[in-house]
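Everyone, describe these structure tokens:
***
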Amino acid sequence: MLLPGGQALLGFQFVATLTKSFHVLPISYQYIHVVDLCAIALAVTLLMTPAALHWNPATTTSNSTVSDRDS
């Protein structure tokens, strides 16, 4: 539930940088927005990390493979 919301927020923040009004902002506000964009990207990455680590077959402790269990 959190991951789609984080990805949507990241997308909306990124699209905001492509608008004409973004380039009218003072440069300090633009830098703040870029820092916020990086923070959201980091948060989304950290939300996805547990799933990637859980899926990694190298982290399993079992010696059997899927084909061994099916037979």
The chain has a mean pLDDT of 81.
